[in-house]
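Can anyone check this?
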Amino acid sequence: MLVRILAIAMLGSCPLLDKPRRPTAAFFPALADSLQTPAAAPTQYAWLAPGRYAARNSLAARFPAPAGYQRTAVAPGSFGHWLRHLPLLPPGTPVRLYNGQLKSRQDVHAAVLDLDVGQQDLQQCADAVIRLRAEYLFSQDPARIHFQLTSGHDIAFPQWCAGTGFRVVGADDVQPASKVAEAPTHAALRRYLVQIFSYAGTRSLARELQPVPLAQVQPGDVLIQAGSPGHAVLVLDVAVQPTTGQRVALLAQSYMPAQQVHVLKAGPQPGAGAWFALDPARLQVHTPEWTFAREELGRF
């Protein structure tokens, strides 16, 4: 355990405390405000129990585009389309930590995703982005799932399932390790992600993203500040004002300690809603618990 803690200490993740266990201009794409639910929603969101998905509690249904705006077009089967229809827990649901306790701040969220957080202090900020990206890829093609560790090693889900795992020796020496081969089921994905969460963070996730100008923000992009501390916020959806080109976005995060992923409130004032105005002329993007530079936007 001591070796692992030392290995983890050099990794960057979420703010204030690091995990106690761990060594990325042209405006106007075509516009659309489609609210259709994805085909075969239970298979799109594999963690949900059969029959649990309800279109009325999807992100798209609960958060219509602001007056005068239209949601950007997203292709069926794309990450953005998948995010747009994510399931939410009922209105008024508080944010809870991995251990069931209430998050200390209940004033920063507009909704809570219907997504489990696990029973360990693992699914924090960058991990929540990794979780959602992995779940999307699992719904499309599990063979595409792979993530980097902070050490730079790339761990592919197909090889992991085939019996090639890994172990960390010393500070950042990642070595292949045999494991029991298993089918690429959703349960296997969750076990794989526990290992990834343990040795990945904002530094590794930032390396997997390509920089994107804030003026071109799309659903699925990530606001990310790599470091220790660092933070990551996922862009769930984007809408555009057709005349001015002004873009607004729905943002989601997890935080420290591990907690339910939640849609962020756009401001403390009553009626602020959840749509953040993203102005490329401003130097910073302010969210309730973190401030990013406008250049700190990346895309898978």
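Reply from J.R.: I decoded it. The longest helix spans residues 125-140.
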